[in-house]
Amino acid sequence: MSNQLVTTVNENIMDMKQNEGLSLPPDYSVGNALNSAYLILSDTSKGKPLLERCDQGSVIKALMNMAIQGLSPAKNQCYFIPYGTQLVMQRSYFGSISVVKRLSNVKDIQAQIVHKDDVFEIGGVDGMLVVKKFEPSFENLDKPIIGAFAWVEDNDGNRTYTVMTKKDIDMSWSHAKTKNVQNEFPEEMAKRTIINRAAKFFINSSSDNDLFVQAVNNTTNDEYEDDPKDVTPPKRSLMADVGEQQGQVAAEPDITDEAPIEPNNEEATLNDEDAGADGQTELFTNLDDVDAE
């Protein structure tokens, strides 16, 4: 079954490249990524492997979404979550960065976390929200997160800023299907959330291949409840909320909603020096097995 599964997905991807205009990163090996994924899905160290627990159709779909987006489990760019008998591929923080940088209309993207007592000022330039000042402090790193921001730079060097308060982030997490990782790794998960929010316009307005854009959107949607929801917080009105006002971010808002957490999973994480630098290896190593309802 393993060879047949990998061969089937690999042949489908090759057909998409030849006949449907799918473009993959030049240094991306579909075969290597599929073999890495197979090692994870066939792992028996925690019981029955995902290949046997999950519907084969959902396994093929998860692997197709991974390959179309040019993601590699060996680099901790994605992981696999069982929801009952259905397998879903989800992007990590590194995977989200990789996908956005592949967009033809994006040059670069960065995300940062704002902690309590950090100096953070926003303002307006030509009617557009901008981050005017951000001065993090080592002493504040263990203080509560009060928000996050990201910028996306297009090919002309223009930066579009996105800002989310902690309440915005928790609202997005409240629609997630599963719970656990946000509490343990809130910074990485908050960065991923703000990146998905910031990149949404660029993803859906790009001229990239429809297969790639659809796979990106499908992967994001698969993380949330079954009935479709737009989990993007409403865009802030610059005139109403910002104008030319400058000031330090307000204290962390009271959060009354429970903040669901990103799923645990059975992935057998491979070493990756980039992942180790940002703590992502530890994240995946500590994920436990989850069967969503």
- Mean pLDDT rating: 77
Assign an overall shape.
Answer: globular
User: Low-confidence parts lasting 5 or more residues at pLDDT below 50?
Assistant: 226-293
The number of helical runs is: 12
How much beta, percentage-wise? 15-25%
Tell me how many strands there are. 7
**Rg calculated over all Cα atoms:** 20 Å
Sheet with most strands? 3 strands, antiparallel
* End-to-end separation: 27 Å
Describe this structure in words.
The chain has twelve helices and seven strands. 37% of the residues are buried. With 293 residues, the chain is an alpha+beta fold. The two termini are 27 Å apart. The protein is globular, with a radius of gyration of 20 Å. The C terminus is likely disordered. It has one domain. Strand 1 and strand 2 form a beta hairpin. The chain has a three-stranded antiparallel β-sheet with strand order 3-6-7.
